[in-house]
Write a structure and sequence with these properties.
The chain is an alpha/beta fold. The protein has helices at 42-49, 79-82, 88-93, 97-100, 108-120, 136-150, 166-181, 194-200, 217-221, 224-235, and strands at residues 2-13, 16-27, 31-35, 57-62, 71-74, 154-158, 186-190, 203-206, 213-216. Helix 5 (108-120) crosses helix 6 (136-150) and helix 6 packs parallel to helix 7 (166-181).
């Protein structure tokens, strides 16, 4: 059964249409990579899935026991956020806020959840360090642990390796793959890296292309969308 079904979405802002005719579905255990040119609506689509921005048309439906509280989100970091004045533990714990409702303090269960996720991502030894002093790769692991505190069924990741060196990026991709393959967490990831998308994903959604493509990565390799993307990468 599908966890998310999107039908004929129209995306945009301030009455300006960015993309139309986006249809796809995501089932439990899928690893969907969203690819496309800059400005094609990838981040807007992810925000629409999170109900952070409205769509201009079409529908987004969730099922298979998925609610808004079951979705963890790792957005792109701004420079200001990289300098956030808090400890690693405080940042990870903040992912539990949505689970607490109106409780004024973190519960014992929240703290256990945070520590388990820090251990899961190999950052439990960093918990008392200032977040701003970490490397880019360590900061992304902290934010991923925070997203896992928010939800452990479905992760939405917006360019999770952006700005990382090749070694840190490879480690992040490996970690995300393990969360998907071993822990069964559904992953929806925006990526500009077609090679990584094809290595790790089960499905591809290409939004910056006409006609838009959605399907398995095997079918994507045979598509005109992939052929055009490949030629574009050759020119860079």
């Amino acid at each position: 059964m599908a966890q998310i079904v999107c039908s004929e979405l129209t995306l945009g802002y301030e009455k300006k249409i960015i993309s139309t005719g986006i249809s796809f579905e995501v089932s439990a255990g899928d690893y969907l990579c969203i690819v496309g040119e800059n400005g094609s609506g990838k981040t807007t689509l992810m925000k629409a899935l999170l109900r952070l921005v409205p769509t201009m048309g079409g529908s987004i439906e969730t099922s298979d026991g998925i609610s808004h509280g079951d979705i963890g989100y790792l957005p792109q970091q701004t420079e200001a956020q990289k300098d956030f004045p808090a400890s690693v533990e405080e940042v990870v714990l903040s992912g539990c806020i949505g689970r607490r409702g109106f409780l004024p303090i973190y519960t014992k269960a929240d703290k256990i959840r945070a520590h388990n996720n820090m251990r899961r991502l190999g950052i439990d030894g960093l918990q008392k360090l200032p977040y701003r002093e970490l490397s880019g790769g360590q900061q992304q692991r902290v934010l991923l642990a925070r997203a896992l505190c928010a939800a452990d069924k479905l992760l939405l990741l917006d360019e999770p390796v952006s700005g990382l060196d090749p070694s840190a990026a490879a480690e992040m991709y490996k970690t995300i793959e393990e969360l998907n393959r071993k822990d069964g967490i559904t992953v929806i990831m925006i990526s500009h890296d077609i090679g990584a998308a094809l290595k790790y994903a089960t499905h591809i959604l290409h939004v910056g292309y006409t006609p838009k493509f959605f399907g398995t990565k095997e079918d994507y390799l045979k598509s005109g969308a992939y052929a055009d993307s490949y030629r574009g990468e050759e020119k860079e």
